[in-house]
TrEMBL record, chain B:
EC number, as in UniProt: 7.1.1.9
Membrane-crossing segments per the record: 40-60, 87-110, 122-144, 164-190, 202-232, 263-281, 293-311, 323-345, 357-379, 399-417, 429-449, 469-490
Gene from which the chain derives: ctaD
Function: Cytochrome c oxidase is the component of the respiratory chain that catalyzes the reduction of oxygen to water. Subunits 1-3 form the functional core of the enzyme complex. CO I is the catalytic subunit of the enzyme. Electrons originating in cytochrome c are transferred via the copper A center of subunit 2 and heme A of subunit 1 to the bimetallic center formed by heme A3 and copper B.
Top-level taxonomic group: Bacteria
Organism listed in the record: Leptolyngbya subtilissima DQ-A4
Main location: membrane
Entry protein name: Cytochrome c oxidase subunit 1
Signal peptide: none
Catalysed reaction, written as an equation: 4 Fe(II)-[cytochrome c] + O2 + 8 H(+)(in) = 4 Fe(III)-[cytochrome c] + 2 H2O + 4 H(+)(out)
Amino acid sequence: MKQIPAPFWTLVLGIVVTLVSLWVGQNHNLLPEQASEQAPLVDDLFNVMMTIGTALFIVVQGAIVYSLIRFRQPKGDETDGLPIEGNLPLEAFWTAIPAVIVVGLGLYSVVVFQEMGGFSPGGHHGHGAMVAMAPQQSVIDIAPLVAQAAAADEDIFSKTQVYGFGASPLVQMNQPDVTVNVTGMQFAWIFRYPDTGITDGELHIPVGKDVQLKIEAQDVIHSFWVPQFRLKQDALPGEPGELRFVATREGTYPVVCAELCGSYHGAMRTQVIVHSPKDYADWVASRVAEATPTTTVAQPAETATDAEYLAGIAPDLAKSPVQIAQMTSMSH
Amino acid sequence: MAQADISIKPTELQGGHGHPDKWKWYDYFTFNVDHKVIGIQYLVTSFLFYLVGGFMAVLMRTELATPNSDFLSPELYNAFLTNHGTIMIFLWIVPAAIGGFGNFLIPLMIGARDMAFPKLNAIAFWLNPPAGAVLAASFFLGGGAQSGWTSYPPLSEITANLPQTLWCVALIMVGTSSILGSVNFLVTIWKMRVPSMAWDQMPLFCWAMVATSVLALFATPVLAAAMVLLLFDINFGTSFFKPDAGGNVVVYQHLFWFYSHPAVYLMILPIFGIMSEVIPVHARKPIFGYKAIAYSSLTICLVGLFVWVHHMFTSGTAPWMRIFFTISTLIVAVPTGIKIFSWVATLWGGKIRYTTAMLFAVGLLSMFVFGGLSGVTLGAAPFDIHVHDTYYVVGHFHYVLYGGSVFGIYSGIYHWFPKITGRMLNEPLGKVHFVLTFIGTILTFTPMHNLGMQGMPRRVAMYDPQFAHLNQLVTVGAYILAVSVIPFYFNVIWSWMKGKEAGPNPWNAMTMEWTTDSPPIIENWEVLPVLTHGPYAYGMERSDEVGPAGEPLPASRS
């Protein structure tokens, strides 16, 4: 073994570490399924970081473990180790390599960010328009909040800076196929379709179509997140946000509130249902056909109780936070 | 890098105040101005708060053993998560690492008899216990603040107003303490080093404290401003952050994170200093790349002030900011990497002693590599947007803060306990402590990364049942961590009373604090020390003789 020069072993180790890192980078299975056009872009970036990270992890941890074994104190030897204080070329090398890596990753991130539409959220610059901020309240107060939000929608999205992800540069000039106004409130998401007047507690969208979400919060900060889309945007009171994406896979995926928004924050969950175009058209038609005053925005607050209203517009939503809130109020 | 020998003129005792040689136990409960007493006061109180914050964490993990909210009420859960974070950051890591080690060690390391402003130093400490009391009172006056340690408005303005006000008051108090302490450290290091100690002959812990203090002075006032404005919004009808009255919720986030991201460096820079002291002593080698480590602390301090917006990539962040702050955040990895590589190089070719202090230092190194790499992924905006506010972030920052800062504090305690108390800690018990901590940390915080990427948000008392199994694993890990502190606290208490006598320099270390008694006498030395070598001259030929008064010794090497 001793006849084999050190550079050879370094080369072999380098090849092994590279192969292992490349394999780990492609086969970690840490991320959920991809269901939007943005998801593969994000995953590719993560895979690259995972590959580089694995290589660095193996090299540094390997050096630590090797040192601990190889350079442990010999029994009875109270003398010191080698007085090596520095090595300028080595220090320059391990400063330059990480610098090149992080600058490279930074540039790659910018490219991905641009392809995701990060540079082109909709809306206009202007003076901030504010919505009414509700005092802390339970989800039972949802109806008047929806009514207020509907009235304020147009003003908000036409006047203020919009944050988030807009259309990617390729489709920037196109109008979205579907626009949904998303309102976060304690502790529910309300989805309104301005073109059809549908209001729902779940998000329904067609697969393969350009979808624009206009995101707002009614009371406190919430955060709209669909893990399978790799997209997240905070819903800020008075500061509209936008997400524009194309869902690429039919299915039902969770919509999660990622920002602490109060006691039942963990229960603020609903789902996004990605339909085939035909199913989506059927869903829209059925909702329009069955439209009653309870499915419109402005009227139900006057005629229905809060619970009836909410049960009508968001049947699945009513399963968790509403019941929890009611049980809590009954117990007091 | 050359570390010239240090040689200074012997100086007669400058105190002469008729103090006793040692403090009595009750002196530690008074407004004592001795930096060593204050350092111990900081350490002991912060270790008490560590138990309180840890107890909250155990209760939270018990709640999270099942998907439903069936152990704590959601309000109480939110109060625990808010105060767990607040206590662990503001009353445990920061006061232990900066206040505790900084106060005890800095004057001893630079050959001073005390800090520059002893009374200011005592005031800085005595702001901490009342802050803790105010936080404790907030639980009895409205159930505790419930809007997270970030306390974003509007939630913080409409939830539990009185406890939230008390929370703001507590943070203003600890923030003031931090500012006072930072001024003191900077002036002390700048003006009170022994005359012949050049900047590049200081121990690296001192460099770390310089960087920490500068950072705290820039960042902490901004947090205090945010707290005052929030307090006014809650109590006095102002509308700085109220969107329905012309305020802006994003402004608070900028103010908060302008401090709170640098706070991560406030917590880790002193620990980097501790690492740079512990590793050379127990590896018996000079620190590799002294100047690189010193300057990288300053670089982290500088760049660390320009990365706060990466906490706001999903919030109200303009596109150009996402780009700028992606790059600046990623760049922090470079000086951090320099330190890690330098410590590994210090191990290389050494004669490593497997002391508990060294085990925790190497454990930190190992944890920090993992936490640092996951930090790089969080700097990249497109990926950060997916995992922001998820358990991935919780896993990452606990790797850095528990695997980093807490391991560092433990390492420092095992290393300097003989100097602080005059007695050795029990090594076998220390190794049990290390093994439990190491396993517990990995088991607790590694699965969190998977949870976050798969879709579990943070700060939830109830979660999707698909995440139950990994959460149970995390909870088991948290229980192991809880058990791990038992041998440590027992060891400290027992050893402080009955441990083996340490002598002045049980590790045969070379920095100046080891030249005095253990524990050091009041005013540190009867005659100020004469040093004949640099702080890390292990394995080097050196002269230990004292030269004639006033004449520096000839350098044994250049």
